[in-house]
Amino acid sequence: MGEGAASTENNIHSSREIDNYIATSELLNGWVNSDWPSSYFVPPIHKQLLLGIEDYQKKGLMRVSPGEFRKKDIWVSGEPENFYVRGTDVEPVVREFFRDLDSSIASRPEKASGNLKQIVHTAAWAYYVFERIHPFFDGNGRTGRIILNRVLRGSGLDGIIFLDTWFNQERENHLDAMNLVDKTGDLAPLELYLLHSLSTNINNLYLKGEIDSLITEKEDVLLKSTTPKNIGNIWQPFSKIDLASADAAIPEPVVDRYLI
C-alpha cells in the first residue's frame, strides 16, 4: 500500500482554489509566449494552484509544500497498488517527461488547421503521461489541464480552455477515457474525449468539420481495439519503471458506454 492517499479531485471546492486557478492564467500566458523549459513553469503553476490550501500540507507522512515533487508512494481508492510512479522515481521520471514535452512543444505545428490530428495526439500524450506520473500529492489533475492548455494554445487554439467545469460535467467519460488508455495502451480514447470537448466548445466551423472527421476516425480505432498493448508504447520510460500492470482485458461495457 502507498504512503499517501491522493485526491480524486472531483471539484474545485473553495473560492480560494478558484482564485488560484484564475491566477495561473498569467503563468500559462507566460509559458505560451516563452521558450523557457517546462520545468521552469510547472512547479510554480502547481504552487499557485494550491497556494493557501492547508489540507495539502497533510498529504503523505511528511509535510510537503505545493510545487515540490512527492518522494513517497501514493494510492488512490479503486486503483491497484503502485498504479502511479513510485515516489523514489518521481523526480528523474518527471524531469525526463519535461524534456520530452519541451521537444514536442518545439516541434508543434503553429496553426491548427490541417494539423489537428498531431495537436490532439500531443495534448492527449502530455496529459496522460503527466497524470500517470502523478508527481504531486494533490492537484495533478488541475496542473495536467494547464499543461494540456499549453499544448493547444501553442498551436493556435487560443479560444479553447479546458476548465474544471467541463471536466466535472464530463467526469464519467473523462475517467472512462483514462481507464481505457490504461487497458489498451492506446491514446485513442483520450484523444476522442478531447475531440468531443473541442467540438462542443469551438466556434470555427471549418475546424469543427475537421474535428468531427477525426472523431469518426478515433471511434473506428476504438471499436477495432481488441489486443491490449503495454503503456510503454505511449511513453517508452514507462516500460522501464515500476508500474502496475496494464495488461488486463479491455472492459467492453466501458467501451460501449463511452461510444454512445
Task: Fill in the keyword field for this structure.
single chain; two-stranded parallel sheet; disordered C terminus; 260 residues; 2 strands; Fic-like fold; mainly alpha
Task: Characterise the protein shown here.
The chain has ten helices and two strands, in the order βααβαααααααα. It is mainly α. It has a single domain, classed as Fido-like domain (Fic-like fold).
Draw up the topology in text.
Blueprint: E1 4-5, H1 15-32, H2 38-49, E2 74-75, H3 87-106, H4 116-133, H5 140-153, H6 164-169, H7 171-184, H8 188-201, H9 205-224, H10 252-259
Parallel strand pairs: 1-2
Offer a quick outline of the entry.
Helix content is 55%, strand content 2%. The chain is mainly α and 260 residues long.
Total domain count: 1
Assembly state here?
A: single chain
Order of helices and strands: EHHEHHHHHHHH
Overall strand count: 2
Could you report the average pLDDT, rounded to the nearest whole number? 81
CATH architecture heading: Orthogonal Bundle
Number of helices: 10
Any idea of the CATH topology? Fic-like fold
CATH class, named: Mainly Alpha
The helix content is: 55-70%
Q: How big is the Rg?
A: 18 Å
